[in-house]
Amino acid sequence: MYKNIIVGIDLGHGEASKELISRAGALVDEGGTIRLIHVLEDVPTYIAAELPRDLNDRRQAEARVELGLFTKETPGNCVSEVRTGAPASQILQAAEDHGADLIMIASHRPGLSDYFIGSTAARVVRHAQCSVLITR
Question: Does domain 2-135 match CATH 3.40.50.300?
Answer without folding.
Answer: no
